[in-house]
Amino acid sequence: MKTIKVKRKPNLKRQNHDQNYKELLTAFFKEFIELFFEDLAKHVDFSDLTFIDKEIFRDAKGRGKKVVDLLVRTKVFGMEGYIFLHTEIQSSYPKDDFSERMFWLYCRLYDKFRCPIIPIALLTYKKKAEPEKRQFKIEVANQTFLDFRYLKIELKTKNWREFLRNSNPLAAALMAEMGMDKQERVRVKLECLRLIATLKIDPEKTMVLGDFIDSYLKLNVVEETEFSKMIKEFDETEEQTKMQMNQWAASGYKKGEEDGLEKGFEKGIEKGIEKGIEKGARETAIRLISGYVRVRFPEVLCEVREMLPLLSLSHLNEIGEEIYDLEKGESLLNLVRNRLPKF
User: Fold this and answer.
1) Mean pLDDT across the stretch 93-116?
2) Is 234 exposed, middle or buried (CB count within 10 Å of its CB: 0-12, 13-18, 19+)?
3) Do the bridges between strand 83-90 and strand 117-123 make them parallel or antiparallel, or are there none, so unpaired?
4) Mean pLDDT of the residues in the chain
5) What does the DSSP 8-state code read for residue 126?
């Protein structure tokens, strides 16, 4: 009888998670090493970085293939030639021996490149797990024949408060994935965005940080209301920061003009809603408009989000065209209310 192999469906949630981290670490690789490995950062030549894409190795035992998450070629001061910084992003507690897997990948990478390799495990488990060992040993007859070690970061064991005053921009994003109590979620998101607003970094990199935070700290309606209230309570000394947060939001969502085609739009909100793919166009339009309002006019977010699903695609298109010209949340409310269906 012929055996039929059932092809396993790809884990899209896991793929999106890995992609979020790859995008973040690629944009802020220097900051990543400086944030967690200060001593190592002193020796790395960050002016000479090459990101190696899609290194794939097959398991000899037939357990499938493994794609290396992030591989960077660079130079270390005081050494001839290159080294490779190999970072694995682990989002769920592994069923197999993760340390053995790190060693297996290390061997494959060394066999291919014949260069020193510094392995780093970035553990992004949703909950604080049991302490993860960071070595793989082979011992026989009371003798050690292999003692492989790697660097490790487990984000949920980090307390976000310890990074609150850190000027490293990567800290602003990763606080969203660190250990926190449920009632702290709103405060953490506010502090993440506040930190971004005070940093002088490239607008595109600012959006990478903002998108990452939005992906991992999605607030519910109650939390959004609390978030809006906290922004309103900024004192006079923080008015500049508040304005910078609003400017960041405005410029950020205009980035949809560049990314629009990937989201089913021709030119972000303005043109995208009009020419977006038919399936899911309204949902995508609502999501983008809500995202813009969330930071630009947070005080009216709850009301706007309740009304948007009642609007037709053409009305959403009109709002998308006019929203950038609005100065006040009340003006946005009037814009949306005037397009509500008459019952």
Assistant:
1) 82
2) middle
3) parallel
4) 77
5) S
| pLDDT per residue as tens digits for the range 185-220 | 999 998 998 888 888 788 788 888 888 888 888 877
Q: How many Å apart are CA 314 and CA 339, to the nearest integer?
A: 10
What does the DSSP 8-state code read for residue 108? H
The pLDDT, as a whole number, for residue 231 is 76
Let me know whether 153 and 166 are in one domain: no
Q: Domain check: are 49 and 153 in the same one?
A: yes
Residue 2, pLDDT above cutoff 80: no
Alpha helix (H) residue ranges in the chain: 12-27, 29-36, 38-41, 98-113, 169-174, 185-198, 203-216, 221-232, 239-254, 256-259, 268-275, 281-296, 301-307, 313-322, 329-337
Of 139, 157, 175, the position where a domain reaches its end is: 157
* 3-class secondary structure, 58: strand
Please answer whether residues 248 and 210 qualify as being in contact, where contact means their C-beta atoms are separated by less than 8 angstroms.
Answer: yes
Predicted confidence at residue 9, as pLDDT, reads 44
- Domain of residue 252 covers 162-337
Residues 34, 169 share a domain: no
Residue 143 and residue 107 in one domain:
yes
DSSP per-residue codes, 130-189: SPPP-EEEEEETTEEEEEEE-EEEEGGGSBGGGGTT---HHHHHHGGGSB--GGGHHHHH
Please check whether residues 189 and 127 belong to one and the same domain.
no
> Is residue 177 in some structural domain?
yes
For the chain, how many structural domains are there in total? 2
Q: Phi, psi at residue 339, to the nearest 5°?
A: -110, 5
In angstroms, rounded to a whole number, what is the distance separating the alpha carbons of residues 97 and 136? 9
